[in-house]
Structures are given as C-alpha cells and as structure tokens.
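A reminder from the course coordinator: this example appears on the midterm review sheet, so study it carefully.

Given structure:
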C-alpha cells in the first residue's frame, strides 16, 4: 500500500492507495468524497472527469495519483469560496447551461482554465477550448452564453 500526499482544494490530503497508479478520479471520488468530477468514458475522451492541476484543465481519469506530488489540484467543489460560487459556476447557473449535468463539470473546469489564461476569449477560442468536452443534451448555446457571461463578470 502506498501513502500518497495530495494538495486538493487548498488542503493537504493523504490517501492510502493499493495502487499508486490509481487514477486521480478514483482517489477524489472514492477516498475524498468529491463528486464534482464524474466517471464518463474512463479513456480521457469525454471531459466529465476534468479537474484543474496547477491551473490546467486535466482529465483525472488518465492521471495516476503518484504523479501529483507537489502539484495543486482543484475540483468543481474547490472553485467556490465558502458559500460564494466562482463566477463560472454562477454564470452556468444563470444561463441554465447544465441541462442534464453530464458535461457540466468538464465544461466549468475547462472554462475556468480558459478564463484564467484569456480573460476575454473570442467565440472561436471558447469553442476550441470546449470542443473536447462531450455534451449529450445539446446545451451548447447555453454553455457559450455562460462562458461569455462569466468573462464579463468582475
């Protein structure tokens, strides 16, 4: 059994992993009770498992926990500051962009990473950033409105 130290949502956390190559997604959901990242495909293709690793949107189903020493992980739950939602979360709610919820985690995480790099992205930049996040229900227009709204918020 491997003892692995992680820095998740601003807190140092230690898990005992039977396999140090266990995907981060499993550690977050099963060991820490963080259910923002979802299991979708398990192949890094859908984006539902995204988290921020050192500010970059990363598919947690493909990342072994052993690769995270000294790195900062932020999940959907960690975006909020107490009871105050992150502006991306607030914009997604205001635009009702999370219709079925399948893609919401990945879309919000990818948007947060995008806005941290490019505070006022063009529609082309938004579409490019979100292209690898699968959406089953077709709420794409609402998602685009939510990203634009978040970019305009102070």
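Designed residues:
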């Amino acid at each position: 059994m491997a003892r692995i130290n992680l820095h998740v949502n601003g807190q140092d956390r230690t898990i005992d992993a039977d396999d140090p190559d266990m995907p981060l997604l499993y550690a977050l959901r099963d060991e820490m009770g963080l259910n923002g990242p979802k299991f979708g495909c398990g192949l890094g293709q859908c984006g539902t498992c995204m988290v921020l690793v050192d500010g970059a949107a990363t598919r947690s189903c493909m990342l072994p926990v052993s690769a995270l020493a000294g790195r900062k992980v932020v999940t959907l739950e960690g975006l909020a500051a107490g009871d105050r939602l992150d502006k991306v979360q607030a914009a997604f709610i205001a635009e009702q962009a999370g219709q079925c919820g399948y893609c919401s985690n990945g879309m919000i995480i990818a948007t947060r990473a995008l806005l941290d790099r490019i505070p006022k992205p063009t529609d082309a930049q938004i579409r490019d950033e979100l292209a690898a996040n699968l959406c089953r229900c077709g709420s794409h227009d609402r998602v685009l409105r939510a990203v634009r709204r978040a970019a305009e918020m102070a």
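Strands lie at 2-8, 11-17, 50-53, 56-59, 72-74. Residues 104-117 form the longest helix (14 residues).
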